[in-house]
Protein 1
Amino acid sequence: MNLELELFIRVFLAFIFISSAISKYNNFDKHIGIISDYKILPSSFSRIAGRIDFTAELCVGILLLIGFLKPLAVSISVLLLLIYIVAVSINLLRGRKEISCGCGGILGNHQLSWKLVARNIFLVLTIISILLIKDSLFSFDTLIQTDSAIHTFGYKAWQYLFISTSLMVILLLAKETFYINKHFNKIISSLKNND
């Protein structure tokens, strides 16, 4: 894997975790309700679990974005995703597909399905793959290890950070456009059916 791809993957994963954390924070009571709907933890622990989930996602997203404590960030993000995989799988095996996944952010919220499990397994493998690169672009870990600010935070690093961030923004805008279009079409259909 080359340095540019590793940076793109880190930015992609950071966007997923940070946007999910922000979504959960903005809809915290709803997030607590979703955790309770999974019926895995006692209801009294749902609020604590929600805070831990939000905090872990936000911290992991920031650490991945700036390339700091990468092994720790990878470990926590893999642990989070494995928890999500187990929780979704348990409910699917119980036949409970009507629950919202509670993902939020750029991934959106969907009803539980095996596709979500497969997606999270793919994300786990993707996250683990970034450990293959030791000297990362735009990475505080690399700066500390090599003491080479020019290589780590030079023009090339900023260029690829800008490109990666721009691609994430374009993906987010495309997702929102699709969402708006979908709901607009529903409104038009309901208006036609009322005529």
Protein 2
Amino acid sequence: MRAFETLARGLGRATGEVVFVGDHPSHDIAGARAAGMRAGLVERYAAPTVDLRAALENAV
């Protein structure tokens, strides 16, 4: 969790203002959410998302 907090601080943002996108459900997504970030999962073998804005807005 500290890594995500450090990342947000380096960006000059609170963790609640950051959307983290990662490809590992437990390391990336769970860690980011535990730190208070919204998180989106990139599925390597899924069809590409055409509307990136919509995907980021739907990140939880």
